[in-house]
Design brief:
It contains 3 helices and 4 strands; from the N terminus they run αβαβββα. The protein starts with 8 loop residues before the first helix and ends with a helix. 11% of the residues are buried.
Length: 118
């Protein structure tokens, strides 16, 4: 086989990888990702992105990922009147999910420590 046959393949592979959508990184933000419902859409100010919405257990409020020109951060989701959208029930659910996540991390750390001690 001639190497000249494989030379055009390299740029094609580079082109295809450049078009691949990046895998989202874990941003480390606590909270529970939520599915956006029609009810939530109806009350949200329309300029906010609903592609990534979370409920934080600390306040029970919905937060959305804002991608600005300099950085990407989470901001409180607001109604058309400018009020934050919060729910006590949502806070309880998010707190329970966060507690489950922390317990699972602790169990994994314990299992790893037990495995290293043997």
């Amino acid at each position: 086989m001639k190497i000249s046959k494989f030379i055009p393949v390299a740029p094609a592979l580079l082109f295809l990888t450049a078009c691949a959508e990046p895998v989202p990184e874990d941003d480390g933000l606590p909270g529970l990702p939520v599915e956006v419902t029609e009810e939530l859409i109806a009350m949200v100010e329309p300029t906010q992105s609903l592609s990534s919405v979370r409920i934080l257990p600390e306040d029970g409020c919905y937060w959305y990922r804002y991608s600005g020109p300099v950085e990407t951060t989470y901001l409180p989701l607001r109604t058309t009147e400018g009020r934050r959208i919060c729910s006590e029930q949502a806070a309880e659910i998010a707190a329970a999910a966060e507690a489950e996540r922390l317990a699972a991390e602790a169990a994994a750390a314990d299992a790893e420590a037990a495995g290293l001690g043997t």
